[in-house]
Amino acid sequence: MDEVLLRSLTPGVLTVLVRRGADFAAAEDAVQDALVEAVRVWPADPPRDAKGWLVTVAWRRFLDANRADASRRRREDLVDQEPEPGPAPAVDDTLQLYFLCAHPSLTPSSAVALTLRAVGGLTTRQIAQAYLVPEATMAQRISRAKRTVSGVRFEQPGDAATVLRVLYLVFNEGYSGDVDLAAEAIRLTRQLAARFDHPEVAGLLALMLLHHARRAARTAADGSLVPLAEQDRGRWDTGMIGEGVAVLQAALVRDRLGEFQAQAAIAALHADAPATEETDWPQIVEWYDELARLTDSPVVRLNRAVAVGEADGPRAGLAALAALDGSLPRRAAVAAYLHERDGDLATAARLYAEAARKAPNLAERDHLTRRAARINARLNALRCD
Amino acid sequence: MAKYLLLKHYRGAPAPVNDVPMDQWTPEEISDHMRYMHDFAARLEATGEFVDGQALAPEGTFVRYDGEGRPPVTDGPFAETKDLVAGWMVIDVDSYERALELAGELSAAPGAGGKPIHEWLELRPFLSAPPTISE
């Protein structure tokens, strides 16, 4: 059974229940039950109409749970009549579900968890494993999130930016686990892009595709990180790059630039280059200028300094870096790289070691430590000559 | 979304404000302290921020490899000067500010006289997985 296909039906089933009058939290629980039941029953007895099957089972589960609650909640009137799904609503329910799960009243981690469950159809256990927390903790996080949005009307339109931030987080901070969160983020963004005509949704989808295309080349066999400049570009997924570029181009012609389109444009320029030396660095610098105008993020200015170093030489890169705050994360790593390119090996080795001490993750720390060690070995060999 | 370790020390942290050793508290004060710690962990479970919590015995042994075919060498007990970890809690929170806030709450656990200990806790970020998008 194709579980991804099964999970892709989740938002549609959930919104049918909500439209029939079930409250969001109870409907969401009922749909989860139906998904679990489908995984159990379908392999031996596949339904002809998968979505219809899920709606029937989920609605029955909802009614059962509701019946158990009936004396308290007085919902008997809902129990006996099983309404037909009404006429097609003017607003796309699935789209509203994205907005609800990314509602600004939720913290980022709650919005991520709720989106993965209610839109993505993942189980609490899968989400807990993906984020390396106990299942009970994740269950609480999700039920709190549901309580937080319980008063939000389903029809209220939301802000696209909040949804995009959540999907970006799922993609970019996807940890290891059973579930491939990067692929899941792409699936959810693709599903969103099919319903929501918005250049930044397309921009985010393109950005994800262009980075995901490099996945096979990004880590060595021993699990260590391979930086962009050293990646075997023959291992990049050209089909995915082609799709990413096409999605991006269609978005850019609409002339409503946003940060995700600009980031995707930078990724596309890297994808275009057969080798680091053949990269169109001046154009990448221009895109970083656009990005800095759009976001004013210090991280963008840091990455811009790297691009300036490639476009105009390491001295120019160091000059661009000099204007930036010394406490910026990864600043030492960038300075080390630029000094190495400039031939100042002693300074580079010292800065790589400093950057390794400040690295926020293990893969980066190992990479930076290795670079420092490699330069120190060269320096020692030079001294012995 | 970031994980932090809250480390509690038997020794090695700066002296707390309410610096009376636990064996000189009243039994009720000890119970109140334990209840506070338990409630704190339960509250974190309810907010979906709890990952793990464990206490460690103060006795420990240093162990090291001593060559092929030989049993490991042990040394100990730990010297009085050694920094000694008493236990930990792992939290998964949205921000560094939230981690600080929780560490502050945990440090307010009641001690002698029912007053907050103002104990120094060590807050350490986990090294995370690398982000996918880096340029």
TrEMBL record, chain B:
InterPro entries: Dimeric_a/b-barrel, YCII
Top-rank taxon: Bacteria
Pfam families to which the protein is assigned, alphabetical: YCII (PF03795)
Residue stretches making up the YCII-related domain: 20-107
Family to which this protein belongs: Belongs to the YciI family.
Name of the protein described by the UniProt record: YCII-related domain-containing protein
Gene source species: Streptomyces virginiae
Lineage start: Bacteria, Bacillati, Actinomycetota, Actinomycetes, Kitasatosporales
